[in-house]
Amino acid sequence: MSELPRGQRNSAWGPGFWAGFVACAVVLALAVPILNLWVPSNSAVALPDYLVPLLGKYLCYALLALSLDLVWGYAGILSLGHGAFFALGGYCMGMYLMRQIGTRGVYGNPLLPDFMVFLNWKELPWFWWGFDHFSWAAAMIVLVPGMLALVFGWLAFRSRVTGVYLSIITQAMTYALMLAFFRNDMGFGGNNGMTDYKDILGWDLHQPSTRLGLYLVSTTALGAGYLLCRFVTISKLGRVLLALRDAESRVRFLGYSVTNAKLFVFTLSAVLAGIAGALYVPQVGIINPSEFSPGNSIEIAIWVSVGGRGTLSGAIVGAVLVNLAKTWLTGAAPETWLFVLGALFVATTLVIPRGIVGLLHSARWVRPRATAPLPAGE
Fold first, then answer.
1. Which pTM value belongs to this model?
2. Is residue 378 part of a domain?
3. Per the structure, how many domains does the chain have?
4. What residues contact 319, with CB distance under 8 A and at least 6 apart?
5. Are 344 and 326 in contact, with CB atoms under 8 Å apart?
């Protein structure tokens, strides 16, 4: 099993790809600041301050969907627990933000967050040590989801758990974490979670300039995550992932380490999900155990399915479009949203199984080299 031919590799990183990537980056990184800062507020195209963190939230969701597409679309690992990695990254960021409040909290305690004072905690738990430093929090954002995925993946993949059984145990994992984080004695705020953040790295989180900065960081993270996933999927490892997705037993017979390949991509995917969660929290202003809900992880799979599994760009498109629809419908007709979400999943399964981007590829409106063909029958 070899890498892509040199001509295809060059095309994958050729001028056409970079032109499209730069064009998207310019639109995301320049259009929003221009419409927010320089267009008069009374203009029809002006972007109000309150919409900037909403768009940043969509970009975090897009990075989260990208992380799932890496393992589901290319390695055939349907994880229904990716919301756990997202939430863990969010909690790591939330812990840092809570430590920055200091005496500005309701109780004015410089050593303990407000919820610990309320619950009569006498000292800061050991696992909170270091979170008053951003560098430590940044390391934990990567290490905590990554280590959980590494341990969980090693146990699952070494035991050759695959298919629906793997999906079920990943969902059980995130459900167990949700129940644990709901407990007040866990030290993470219980069912209320963490909120009332003040600043990040000295920047006031309530200022429009800080929110715009977080949006731009989210844009950069999404771009870097996309390039990293693309690099992986067109490499020799990417070809191995596609092969084990389609015929795992044959790949194992050829002498490739299926366990190591799955473990690497699963851990990388978890790290990307954790980073997405960390960027999400300061923009929405709260993190609580509901982020661990198994329903959230299922919704992530729907984003990827709608956009196009095994396309990378489809995951981004699906996450943004579905969440735009959710924002509009939950305001206009909130009781219909779950029905629409279910209908979307059924439609993508029966009508357009390759998703929106896959449909465009099939129609040859978009060059298909970056896609991962689905197995026959899917």
1. 0.93
2. no
3. 1
4. 58, 61, 62, 64, 65, 66, 300, 303, 304, 307
5. no
